[in-house]
Design a protein that fits this description.
heterodimer; A: 294 residues; MetI-like fold; flat; B: 259 residues; alpha/beta; Rossmann fold; 2 domains; 6-stranded mixed sheet; 3-stranded antiparallel sheet
């Protein structure tokens, strides 16, 4: 048998690539990009058109006076003015800065807290359920305390935004670290990854999808807390999206009020879709995205 | 060998287990997984451990790999050797490409980038996956993933390979091919292999020596040399005869638990 070693080897090479080709074939399916975009877009456009129709119809029934419920036409005309006004951009600057700062602080605190709780048994026993309890606390309920502590200031808003977002982020980290497949840990250790390297090469990437899910949820809480805060803690010298919303109500500017709400909605959607895109990209890379479900 | 940087160290000393015992739990709930297992695997030898369920084959490999400690007894490895371990599942990192996976042990050993690249390319050629370097594990078939896992383990440059039913989840044809591949790589790299399986034919196809473990607790109850010249075929009569002999002994061991 030894004389045909070479031919055996060649045959086996051909068999290997043949088998590989057979098993890989048919896994990739292409649909055109335009078709996919359209398939995702038209239901949303239809829903928007329906919403505006219902809104206009409600206005026409005369259920409420127009100074309370503005018709869509007026609102969109005001929105067009508002988008080109300094008020919007000044407000956005303040609100955006608060959101970014609060979320960044929540990120740092959430990551550190999550890692500490995931690693240290005593901390887990002490803080694990407290973090989940904090998450169930509506953030607006923190404001009275925040205002007592910090007055009607930036710090009061910051305090509540961080409290709103950090527990979700921490929980994402804890969940991610807890559910790293033990097999991957064993493989990583066998390949020579210990301690910090195990975190760098195995635990962190394995936990990333859960961490991003935590960030997304944390952002949602931060954004809600911030809007609640800006409505309650109006600082006269500083305009913000939330403060403008409060003024619009006080001055009975119904179209402006709705225009601001649309801005808030769109902002939330944009940031949320950024997190959604990151989440999806990671899942695709990790191979956990079910193409049938999308 | 195509390049001088790739010559792996071959083991100079045996992998030696001296009276290895492993107990899980305490008191009344204690489970004796291994009971005084003594075994020498010579440098360059291919040893298959065969046993029915509950013989603690995987436990034994974990102990040799240093992922767990024996309750008593001692395991001696050649100086400075960290054995590579392969599992039934490929255990690839899904966030990384094929080449990224193979690169991990090289990064952990702090090899310079250029050398890493060269080594990864060479290892992927060894397992016939050079064109799939940029794919992700989920894009590959089961057999291909297991080959990536093999390349990643070989990247450790260790002379000792521990394999825990690595081909157990594959179809027969893929498994046959991987047997040929593993045999070739084992010969080329002069590896010492401790291979766990419950597939007796697979053991006869691959091993220099087959060791049969009893179940609950695991003890060595039989050991036989396989003196069939290589390359072998899993369907050859000599392999079938050896497999039949080992299967008989395995059955009577399993039957002992039924009484």
């Amino acid at each position: 048998m030894a004389s045909d070693t070479l031919t055996t080897a060649q045959r086996s090479d051909a068999e290997i690539s043949g088998l590989d080709a057979l098993e890989i074939a048919g896994r990739e399916k292409e649909t055109s990009r335009a078709a996919r975009v359209w398939a995702a877009t038209w239901p949303k456009l239809a829903a928007l058109a329906l919403t505006i129709t219902v809104w206009q119809a409600t206005v026409w029934t005369g259920w409420k006076e127009q100074w309370a419920l503005a018709p869509p036409g007026q609102v969109f005309a005001d929105l067009a003015d508002y988008v080109f006004s300094a008020a919007l951009w000044d407000g956005l600057a303040t609100t955006g800065r608060r959101a970014a700062l609060g979320f960044a602080a929540a990120l740092v605190i959430g990551l550190a807290l999550g890692l500490a709780v995931a690693r240290v048994k005593v901390l887990r026993a002490a803080l694990g359920s407290m973090i989940t309890a904090l998450q169930t606390m509506p953030s607006i309920a923190w404001f009275p305390l925040a205002i007592l502590l910090f007055g009607l200031t930036e710090q009061a808003i910051f305090f509540v935004v961080v409290l709103g977002a950090a527990p979700s982020i921490a929980n994402g980290v804890i969940y991610g670290v807890d559910y790293v497949p033990p097999l991957l840990l064993r493989a990583g250790r066998n390949l020579g990854a210990r301690r910090l390297n195990l975190y760098r090469y195995v635990i962190a990437p394995a936990a990333l999808p859960a961490i991003v899910a935590g960030l997304k949820q944390g952002w949602a809480f931060a954004w809600r807390s911030l809007m609640a805060g800006e409505l309650l803690v109006v600082i006269a010298t500083r305009t913000s999206i939330g403060a403008q919303l409060t003024y619009a109500r006080e001055l009975n500017e119904a179209p402006r009020l709705m225009a601001i709400m649309i801005v808030i909605l769109v902002l939330g959607l944009v940031v949320d879709s950024l997190f959604g895109a990151a989440d999806k990209a990671i899942r695709r890379r990790w191979g956990v995205l079910d193409p049938a479900g999308q | 060998m195509t390049s001088t940087t790739t010559t792996p160290r071959s083991a100079t000393a045996p992998v030696a287990l001296h009276g290895v015992t492993k107990v899980y739990g305490r008191g009344a709930n204690a489970v004796l997984a291994q009971d005084g297992v003594s075994l020498d695997v010579a440098p360059g030898e291919f040893v298959c451990l065969v046993g029915a369920s509950g013989c603690g084959k995987s436990t034994l490999l974990n102990l040799v790999a240093g992922l767990d400690r024996p309750s008593s007894g001692r395991i001696d490895l050649p100086e400075g050797v960290n054995p590579g371990l392969m599992f039934q599942e490929p255990a690839l990192f899904p966030w990384s490409t094929v080449e990224g996976n193979v690169e991990v042990p090289l990064k952990l050993r702090k090899l310079p980038r250029a050398e890493r690249r060269e080594r990864v390319a060479e290892l992927l050629r060894t397992v016939h996956l050079a064109e799939f370097a940029r794919k992700r594990p989920h894009e590959l078939s089961g057999g291909m993933r297991q080959r990536v896992a093999l390349a990643r383990t070989l990247a450790l440059d260790t002379p000792v390979l521990l394999m825990d039913e690595p081909f157990g989840a594959l179809d027969a044809m893929t498994r046959d091919i991987l047997h040929d591949e593993l045999e070739r790589i084992w010969t080329e790299r002069k590896l010492t292999v401790l291979f766990v399986t419950h597939n007796v034919r697979e053991a006869a196809r691959l091993a220099d020596r087959i060791i049969l473990l009893s179940s609950r607790p695991g003890r060595i109850i039989y050991s036989t040399r396989v003196d069939v010249p290589r390359p072998r075929r899993i369907d050859s009569p000599e392999i079938a005869a050896i497999a039949a002999d080992v299967t008989d002994r395995l059955r009577s061991e399993v039957g002992r638990h039924g009484q």
